Amino acid sequence: MTESVSPYTDRRQRHAADMMGMYLFLGTEIMLFGGLFAAMALTRLQHPAEYVAHSRELHLWIGAWNTVILLTSSLFAALAVHAAREGAGRAAARWLGATAAFGLGFLALKATEYTLEFREGLLPVTGGDGALSEPVQRLFMHLYLVSTGLHAVHLTIGICVVTGLAWRLRRAESARAIPVEITGLYWHLIDVVWVFLYPVLYLAR
Amino acid sequence: MSTTAEPPAETEEERVSYFRSGTSLRSWLLTTDHKRIAILYLLSITFFFFVGGLAAALVRADLMTPAPDLMTNEGYNRAFSLHGIIMVWFFLIPSIPNTFGNFLIPLMIGARDVAFPRLNLLSWYIYMAGGLFALATLVLGGVDTGWTFYTPLSSMYANGSVVLVATAVFVTGFSSILTGLNFIVTIHKLRCPGMTWGRLPLFIWSHYATSIILVLATPVLAITLALIAAERLFGLGVFNPALGGDPLLFQHLFWFYSHPAVYIMVLPALGVISELVAASARKPVFGYEFVAGSSIAIAVIGFLVWGHHMFVSGQSVYASAIFSFLSLVVAVPSGIKVYNWTATLWKGHIALDPPFLFAMGFIGLFVVGGLTGLVLTMLAVDVHVHDTYFVVAHFHYIMVGGTVSAFFGALHFWWPKITGRLYPLAWGRVAALLIFIGFNLTFFPQFLLGYMGMPRRYHVYPPEFQVLNVLSSSGAGVLGAAYLLPFVYLLWSLRNGAPAGPNPWGATGLEWTVASPPPEHNFAEIPEVTRPPYDYEIERHDA
Ligand code: HEM
Ligand SMILES: [Cu+2]
């Protein structure tokens, strides 16, 4: 293969393009979750009383703690970006490590929550749905599972990327800020999606 | 254009072109050159055009007689579903953007490549992966839901590989998203010095508008298809009333994507036509700002009219009235384009070359398609013609009459640039004319059939409809042959055509300043633009 042609004339141009590409990508993610939010909004409009009743069956406090954890991880991501902009590669790596650790914490708590729901018979999967008696309840829990599940998939990808980046920067004296900034943006999006999922699902009680 | 008995030898330009920068299969499959990726797309969409075309041939053959003689009901359903799915997602949506857009956008704005060349190649691989799923569906027996996947048919009752084909469309969706993203960033960040927004070719403006839709609408289709798959696989009931869901939600989500998607299919064509009209008239485009702005207006308003597909679905009448009004509004920017093209041609120095003929064909068919759209958006009329052949004719006038004509127009206009060779113009004229005639013969009778009440998606019909159906099917034969014709002389020209030189049409635009075929790096030195767009000499002499 012939070596590829760089489309850029300088680094600033490249940085601007990377940032813009990431923002557009985040736009597509918002539209993707938007379809799910539309489905949840419609379900609530059509079955307001049931929606509220089933929201009460979720573990409010686990969700609340997870919100705290994820928001804190976003703070770490922001600090990593700050460090990278200052050129402090190793500090950035440390903050990124903390970000990933808190992300893992979120996933662990979420897994616990799913397990509890499975035992309570609330999870619409084989063997875990014993307590799901009426259709809207099942629908609500389905929407809950799909949207939090899709969110967890995004978070898992985020953790991998953040960890990889932290590994690369672990001994770096300096750092190119762009990859950290872009990863940070993605992390914040994951956070923001949760910040909407939490009230729509848990706080509708 | 004369052709000698001896095929002309390879030119110096060809020896240093993107075509010769590597000859192994590997050099093609791992290329990040936007021009080579465009060629990869050209080959793949042509393949799918044939697959979709074969399905259409089966449909039209069955409709020759009122009786169900060629296919079973099930087989017929599968034929038209596959036709729609393949043509929409594997031909029309990638057709102009991923081939001509990929090839031309960097050249037109004075860049060496798109902003993310590797992402561009990834996008092709994703498209091919989706295509493999689609072909697998075909081999495993297909689907019978139509391209619209309406629930509860698709989620509960349909037989066949619904999940597989939904996966196919889901996967190619990501190819669309990546391409759109790449184009937007390219157009924003890689314009050469002097290439201001007001100097961008209209082809770029329309691809910019298309890309916005690709990026914002496609994810909604992705999640909708995922929900259908989840419903079939796990019983998620969001579209199932028995489970507390609502099938109308599906229609809202689907058309929230698919109405904008019809503009994904036609906006790039509108951009092509603006280029072809200006080059044929050898004049600046009349009202450049309006033509550019109308592309953006179409993209924005196009997001607000999806409800016109649901007038008889039981949505609120007030919603219907608003959607009807907004659908009238979205026709205005399309009208602006047609008026401006006409004004551009006025007193132009027109040569009856193939690109011009294709452009004329496009304008005529697009006007008929657009005006019948307005007819359909009248609430009372739509109750009568909804789900009839009138609708089928309406959208084929735009998507096939319009976009496919523009695709061939683009092919005839930029072929010398892409390959470095001229093709026989006379044959190009014949093809343009035959496509126009064949198209009208195929689809005009369908307006009449629909108005008389023939529903779409049935292969058994009352005998009094036969004459019009036979006309339509014979037209399809003419159209099919006309589509094949360019393959013959274009491929012939690869070896035997005369070398084109950088600018055979004497057109403006940066792509015509580089050699044909362009060198691997496009521009030895990044150009600087100092003149307004479509700055044709003739106009300046007159002024
Ligand atoms: C001038 C603006 C347009 C208006 C007002 C309009 C209006 C409509 C309406 C009201 C329908 C629904 C008819 C029914 O099912 O009862 C329809 C269907 C359709 N239109 Fe248009 N249209 C316009 C432009 C376009 C364009 C530009 C395209 C394609 C590039 C297009 C493609 C389609 C398709 C594919 C369908 C049918 C979908 C299906 O049911 O399978 N339309 N149009
Ligand atoms: Cu529409």
Structure description:
Chain B: It comes from Amaricoccus solimangrovi. Chain B: Its main location: membrane. Chain B: Keywords: Cell membrane, Copper, Electron transport, Heme, Iron, Membrane, Metal-binding, Oxidoreductase, Respiratory chain, Translocase, Transmembrane, Transmembrane helix, Transport. Chain B: Pathway: Energy metabolism; oxidative phosphorylation. The complex is a heterodimer of chains A (205) and B (543). Chain A has 205 residues and is mainly alpha-helical. Chain A has six helices and no strands. Chain A has helices spanning 11-46, 48-55, 60-85, 89-120, 135-169, 177-201. Chain B has 543 residues and is mostly helical. Chain B has one domain (30-542): Up-down Bundle (Cytochrome C Oxidase, Chain A), CATH 1.20.210.10. Chain B is globular. The two termini of chain B are 32 Å apart. The structure holds protoporphyrin IX containing FE and copper (II) ion. The site of protoporphyrin IX containing FE has 22 residues of chain B, from α9, α11, α12 and α14.
In short:
With 205 residues, chain A is an all-alpha fold.
Largest sheet of chain A: none
What is the CATH homology-level superfamily of chain A?
Answer: Cytochrome c oxidase, subunit III, four-helix bundle
**Briefly, what CATH class of chain B?**
Mainly Alpha
> How many extended strands of chain B?
0
Q: Mind describing the biggest β-sheet of chain B?
A: none
Structural class of chain B: mainly alpha
Task: Tell me the Rg of chain B in angstroms.
Answer: 23 Å
CATH class of chain A: Mainly Alpha
The rough form of chain B would be described as globular
Beta-strand content estimate of chain A: under 5%
The mean pLDDT of chain B is 94
The percent range for helix content of chain A is over 70%
At CATH level 3, the topology of chain A is: Four Helix Bundle (Hemerythrin (Met), subunit A)
InterPro entries (chain A): Cyt_c/ubiquinol_Oxase_su3, Cyt_c_oxidase-like_su3, Cyt_c_oxidase_su3-like_sf, Cyt_c_oxidase_su3_a-hlx
Domain Heme-copper oxidase subunit III family profile (chain A): 1-205
GO biological process, one term (chain A): aerobic electron transport chain
Organism (chain A): Amaricoccus solimangrovi
